[in-house]
Amino acid sequence: MKKTLARVFFGLGLSALFAPAVAEAQVPPEVSLRSVTALGTGCPSGTVRAILASNGQHIVLADGALSASAGPGVSPSEQRVFCQVILDLAHTPGYSFAVTNEYGFRGYAELDDGVTATLDVERYFTGELGENPIQTTLRGPFADRFVVREPQSAVGPFSPCGAQRPLNIRTAVALSRLGNPSGAGHIRLTPAWGVQMLRLHWRRCG
Predict the structure, then answer these.
(1) What phi, psi does 8 have (nearest 5°)?
(2) CB atoms inside a 10 Å sphere around CB 30
(3) Most CB within 10 Å of its CB: which of 112, 138, 179, 204?
């Protein structure tokens, strides 16, 4: 099969809480990364690292690859894999922030006819409802590389003013054989540049 690079772009729904009309503020005088925590079947504890840039505008997140497989004899637990990274930032009061993934993800999938693969990315702050559920679906027959990116204009959600809560980033890949119970498939997902480059967007509260 002739293989071409398949590009799949995220679509993000923006709420009034982070409408594009709100101008970004300067970086707060003090910004620090207090901790990074990882949990999930795709990133055991201790496998994720994060570095805050000295200018307070980017976080480099090294969280490895996610792989899922499905087929006769494959355990159901291997059909869905996720990684949830929790970033706890401290900053000067009176500011709110959001992140965007600047380079997205790349991967490769092989799917039999009737087998589907989904990629979900969600960002939310602890104690808040999930915002920006993102879902991309690949449908078999498929055997190709792919790239997944967020629109550059997509920013959000912003952290709540008056409270500094950890940011949760949950990435999941899953396979389904509902369309072909005897089919098989595999998907592997990695950050496009080997690490995730998260851009921090700041705005003043009040």
Answers:
(1) -125, 125
(2) 11
(3) 138
